[in-house]
């Protein structure tokens, strides 16, 4: 419980700092500028190989569920940027700088450099701790992570200069969701065509435009994308009775650990992006609050669930149109208050028992 309380406090602190700097608002505005100046896609299409394990290899998605860095966020944003500019089957070409207005660094919200001893955020232009410096550092680190997935599985390739071998981050190439491939010629990213079968999945543009890509943790994004895939592969079942994922399939097909999956589902549910399967229409207005599903349907799902029977979920998109920053900040604040009260109660109980 202490770990949960501390983790929530850290996340709330980081989100509060981003709120003070309007980091999420500004990153979302930069992405909206790209969207409005381009093709204005209503959905971003992903190849299924990004999320599902094929040929005995772990899918790239789960390999990017990391405690630090923005590698997963960076790759998803590059796909969004590409589909705003390019049509189906058009190859990706990088014509955007790493820094400056409208640059890659402009697309990502971070909280800054935090000093745990003084419990304050630091701003030091001499040591490269400005917001712009830190964002550039995160972008370069993300590219390193995407390239280090392996010679055949890399999702980005950063060339080296001929003289001295210095890495040219500004000239990086984006690879398809399947990775660079095993041929001499890299499998450079092209925009996929949405397909009715299980070959692609789509995510609403609001995921990027309203800040959700900035504030959700990698494990929450991975859980959300997996459930989106299941909901689109079995549309009728999703609408009627919900979709589910047994432990074996979760681990072997998608590579998701149980704790990450369960935590992801709980957070997504509290944010109104997910709910236990119920009979009301999927396009009904989602209820607000810390527990949007806490009614007879939620009780029924919990009370009748056998130990071997997974929860059945329905993905809800209406909340994606709301401000992600405000929504998550409210939920984290309420949760911290609950955790603090619980900790205080335990302390009082312990003191009374030893008195």
What does it look like?
The protein is mainly α. Helices cover 45% and strands 7% of the residues. The strands form four sheets. It has a two-stranded antiparallel ribbon. Strands 2-3 form a two-stranded antiparallel sheet. The protein starts with a helix and ends with a helix.
Give a concise summary:
The protein has 355 residues and is mainly alpha-helical. The chain has helices at 2-20, 23-37, 60-63, 71-85, 131-147, 206-209, 212-215, 218-233, 235-240, 247-252, 258-270, 296-304, 324-354, and strands at 43-47, 113-115, 120-122, 156-157, 173-174, 200-204, 274-276, 313-315. Helix 1 (2-20) runs antiparallel to helix 13 (324-354) and helix 4 (71-85) crosses helix 5 (131-147).
> Which consecutive residue ranges, at least 5 long each, have pLDDT under 50?
289-308
Strand order of the largest sheet: 1-6
Number of helices: 13
Number of strands: 8
Order of helices and strands: HHEHHEEHEEEHHHHHHEHEH
Helix vs. strand class? mainly alpha
The radius of gyration computed from the alpha-carbon positions, rounded to a whole number of angstroms, is 21 Å
Net shape: globular
What percentage of residues falls in helices of 4 or more residues? 40-55%
